[in-house]
Write a structure and sequence with these properties.
heterodimer, A: 111 residues, mainly beta, 6-stranded mixed sheet, 5-stranded antiparallel sheet, 11 strands, 0% helix, 56% strand, globular, B: 113 residues, 4-stranded antiparallel sheet
C-alpha cells in the first residue's frame, strides 16, 4: 500500500530557481523522510522530520510538515543541474518496522 | 551507496529460471530490506529481516524467497513463479529494526526474457 503521494509527478526548472515538491499521506506517522535517487542508482537519505516538528533545514533543503493536513513539502533553494533526480517521501507504518515510499517527483534542472 | 553492495549491476535471465541477487553490508546493521522498483514508480517492499535467521514477507512477496544466515548478507531469489520479474531491485539496511533512515545499495537491474 502506498502511504505517500508526491506532487507534482515531474518538475522542470532553470538552474538557480527554487524547486518545491509536496507529499501527502493517509495515516498518523512518527516521522517523515525525504530521499533522493539519481537515475539507475540507489536512494540516498536527505532529511527526516519528526511528527512534533514543523520545519527542518539542511543546507539548501527545507522541509515542512503539517500533521493536521497530513502533508509535507521539500524545498530546494538555488537549484543546480546536479539536483536533477527523483525525490521520494517516505513514512513509517504503524508497526514502525516498514517504510512506505511514495511514487516520487522527477526533478529536472536545466543549466 | 554506503557500505551496502549489490551484485551484479545488470542481470539477464531466461523465463523459467530462478535467479539470486546478492546483497552484502559491512555496516553491522541488524535489519535488511529488499524492494522492487518499476519504471516511474516508488519502492515496494518484498521481504525484510530484523535479525539473523528471521525474515518477514513484505507487500509483494509472492514469487520471491530470501535467507538471512549471516548478519551481513541477505540474498533474494527471484523464482520462476514470479510472473513479472523484470524490474530494478534495491537492498537496504538500518542499524536496528524500527530505525527510520535506510541505507541503500546501488541496485540490480534484472531483465527476464
Amino acid at each position: 500500500s502506498q502511504q505517500g503521494e508526491e506532487d507534482p509527478q515531474a518538475l522542470s526548472i532553470q538552474e538557480g530557481e527554487n524547486a518545491t515538491m509536496n507529499c501527502s499521506y493517509k495515516t498518523s506517522i512518527n516521522n517523515l523522510q525525504w530521499y533522493r535517487q539519481n537515475s539507475g542508482r540507489g536512494l540516498v537519505h536527505l532529511i527526516l522530520i519528526r511528527s512534533n516538528e514543523r520545519e527542518k533545514h539542511s543546507g539548501r533543503l527545507r522541509v515542512t510538515l503539517d500533521t493536521s493536513k497530513k502533508s509535507s513539502s521539500l524545498l530546494i533553494t538555488a537549484s543546480r543541474a546536479a539536483d536533477t533526480a527523483s525525490y521520494f517521501c517516505a513514512t513509517d507504518d504503524t508497526g514502525g518496522f516498514k517504510t512506505i515510499f511514495g511514487a516520487g517527483t522527477r526533478l529536472f534542472v536545466k543549466a | 551507496d554506503g557500505g551496502i553492495t549489490q551484485s551484479p549491476k545488470y542481470l539477464f535471465r531466461k523465463e523459467g529460471q530462478n535467479v539470486t541477487l546478492s546483497c552484502e553490508q559491512n555496516l553491522n546493521h541488524d535489519a535488511m530490506y529488499w524492494y522492487r522498483q518499476d519504471p516511474g514508480q516508488g519502492l515496494r517492499l518484498i521481504y525484510y529481516s530484523q535479525i539473523v535467521n528471521d525474515f518477514q514477507k513484505g507487500d509483494i512477496a509472492e514469487g520471491y524467497s530470501v535467507s538471512r544466515e549471516k548478519k551481513e548478507s541477505f540474498p533474494l531469489t527471484v523464482t520462476s513463479a514470479q510472473k513479472n520479474p523484470t524490474a530494478f531491485y534495491l537492498c537496504a539496511s538500518t542499524p536496528r529494526p524500527g530505525t527510520s533512515e535506510q541505507y541503500f545499495g546501488p541496485g540490480t537491474r534484472l531483465t527476464v526474457t
